[in-house]
Amino acid sequence: MTSIRCFIAVFLDPALRSQVAAVERHLAQSGADVKWVEPENLHFTVKFLGDVEESRLLTIGGVLRACMADTRPFEMDLGALGAFPGMRDPRVIWVGVNGGREPFVALARAVEEAMKAEGFRREGKGTSPHLTIGRVRSGRNLDALVDRLSTGSPLDGSMMVDRVQLTASELTNRGPLYRPVEVVTLV
Prior knowledge:
39% strand
């Protein structure tokens, strides 16, 4: 049986990609060893599913449609820059969310419950909506990166969350290739 690496996400509004790409370029000037996320791949992860048997994708898409049936579109505002696990030892660089956190968390909770019923493991941590923009690969110039992160201004952009996407992800040596499997429009 063929399996496909999958996740459920809200992709960044294309109108905001250039703003986030400018932040990535600014941070990259630190000379830190970071793999930056390509603008077309920027997304807010709702639920990572892992390897899924291809034969299950149609069912999972239907479950996603059903669990989103009562979810209305909402606005989400981008916020400050941050890092996981923290600013002292950044491994993942992200953009936070200001407005729209509560409806995003509710959306993620609904997806989590629906996918748990389909046999997917429940996430151990709570939902913290964020847009991953880079992953640190080594300690090179980390202090300069942290300095730029600490002094960076919050992003000033908002988007309408009006769709959720079940996405297939193929990992390549040039980065991940994403393919929509099911796009659910919120009404």
